[in-house]
Amino acid sequence: MSTVVGAGLLVRHGLRRDRVLAGVWLVVLLLTCYASAAATAGLYPTEKEQVAAAEAIDASPALVALYGPILDVHSLGELAMTKLTVNYAVLVAILSLVLVRRHTRVEEEGGQLELVGGTAVGRDAVLAAAVAEAITVSFALGVLAGVTNILAGLPVMGSVAFGASWAGVGLVAGALTAVACQLSASARTCAAIAAAGLGVLFGLRAVGDTAVSWLSWFSPFGWSTQLRSYGDTRWWVLLLYPALGAGLLAVAQALRGRRDLGSGLLPARSGPADGSPRLSNAIALSVRVHTPMLGTWTVAMAAMGLVLGAIAPQVGDLVDSPSARRLMERLGGVGALQDTLIAAELSVVAVVVSCFALVVVAHGAADESDGRTEQVLATATSRSVSLLATVFVAVVGATWLLLVTGVAMTVGFGAAGGASGRPVVASALAQAPAVWLMAGLATVCFSLRSGWTVVAWGLLVAFVTLGQVGELLQLPARVLDVSPYTHVPAMPVDDFSWPPELALVAVAAVLLAGAWARYRNRDIT
Amino acid sequence: MISVRGVVKTFGTVRALDGLDLEVRPGEVHGFLGPNGAGKSTTIRSLLGLLRIDGGTAELFGLDPWRDTVKIHRRLAYVPGDVALWPNLSGGETIDMLVRMRGGHRDAFRRRELLERFSLDPTKKGRAYSKGNRQKVALVAAFATDSELLILDEPTSGLDPLMEEVFDECITEHTARGTTVLLSSHILGEVERLADRVTIIRDGRTIESGALQDLRHLHRSKVRAEVSASPPDLSAIPGVYDVVVDAHRISCSVDPEGLPPVLEALTRAGVLSLTSAPPSLEELFLDAYRSSPGDAAVGARPS
Q1: Chain A: nearest CA to B243, how far in angstroms?
Q2: Is pTM, for the whole model, over 0.90?
Q3: Chain A residues with CB inside 8 Å of B66's CB?
């Protein structure tokens, strides 16, 4: 027990530090829960319509790959929670990932843990506290999600099971991150390993649900479906999450005992003794620093693009259901349905790629608070160039990622038998102005004060929430229009159109110019 | 070289610099001393154009640090007190990059020599260096550049004594070539060894400034003596403080003007042994900042 002395204190300290981050995250997820649970009954008033909708989803491998199947088509709860059971559980997992990583490897890299380690805190307290905090937050989220669904009118026991499944996913993700954070000395590499781990678990389930059914049982995301929360609930499935979590934690603990503070299990690679002559200005520096991350993102977005592209041709398969056929005819045939799916996928891609831009700007803020910017600005580097270095990587990198995703989607679409001739790449690139605008907003936050960059994340979350919840809650168009993502033409369904794109570009340009003017005139602190 | 007059910098309601003066002449090593929070780093950051001053004037090379930032920075090298490196850049890459970003040329011979003298491994990634080694990276990058001015903010705070020696040598070599150095430090011995002139600040104001010799003249010596007769009453003499009498031994602090009467009195009492030590910089420093800013006149009296 003495090795975890002080863990309780650290958990309290961590919860205090994370109260805004975790709070916002919880509120967004709970709002989505409520909106979905409350709206579904109104969207499908008769049981016949519910069953038809559920069958339509089950008939589409694309949707099943994304959301998991609806095992009981007669259950309103399962239909209402289609997106949330598996797909939004990824957000629950990411919250755990963020919490565990920032209190372990990030602080270890930053040196804060050395300070903590010198106090009367046990050897294992830091890891234990980080995991305990993630579990606490996941548990709270699970309870609140269950209560929210009950309040929104879904069955009580089903809602309890559903909440428990979210808590379970959060638990496993926290434990998985604890393992990942032992592997590399770099906090960024640890994040990539943990995210890749979650990606594999999600992929196993996607393949399992669409093709090799037993594979779903190898993924906690699959368990969430197999739990059958709102059907004939298999309560014993809930035991799987803590079992896997405990196993992962044991691994993390064993790995932790085999390494020193500040190091990883993967050997730290040394770098070149000499700097390349090209590394001679702030822009080259920013490109160099972000290249590994951009590489990881490129691979991830290419993989995501392939999957998203490959599932689009499958939507035509759901013609055997009469209601789906009617729906499709209303939309304009199989081709139009595929277009709708691609457009919907691309709006998600735009948000994901925006995260890249925000991460780059956040690095700019961290460079300033850590003192690296000070060293750059003490050389013959002007403020303008220093800011440009960050903006350049954010904007060009994000545009590159949209291009990569578009190309990968085209390849995946073609490989899965989709008809050629769709402007998927152009449709992906049409999202760029909205992403640039988001990068512009982040840069404005950064230029006002480096510590305010985090506000940009809040804005992104708000825009996404508006998009997800806004229509379900039937908010006025004026409110929905606040989000830049609503203005992008929904290609390939709609035609490309210049006015909204140019307007977005203009706003982005104004934001960046304002940020530049401010950044040149503020103190670097 | 550097001319700062009456500079004011406020952060919200806090006056970090409150009429600070600093004059650095070409070719000198100027020690810049002050307790934590005195405003040393704020001054340096204002000189680098990172902070915009709210009042007073600051000039480097006769140029305005806020407007002519890049022009000034081509001619100087800066080592921050707490060096942060790029986690995925090696030390060697960082050194070369900083040299090139200053507009300097990479001198492979001098670089290798500096790496050897500081015994620094340039292949490690930024995150793998200890505090001392991070500081060495920044120092090698600064010393490898032929700058007219070196601005060093507590540059040796993470170095061991062996490395401090190497640091001293490097400073001496650079000043021999005519480089001017602004050296902010807590390590008084270092400033005493290296600096020609010092400026002592406290609470954002200059308390005193001048050549080390001049400052010494302005301060009292510590006098210890043993006498054969009963010790004379020295405390009545103007300029004598902290008199302690222990049988035939006597010790006190004496202002320069108090020395002749003290020596006279001691001689009359039959002096057997006498030591008089000049104040160390340590004592100057403690004197200067123990006093409140209100009576921060030169040669302030201890409370």
Answers
A1: 44
A2: no
A3: none
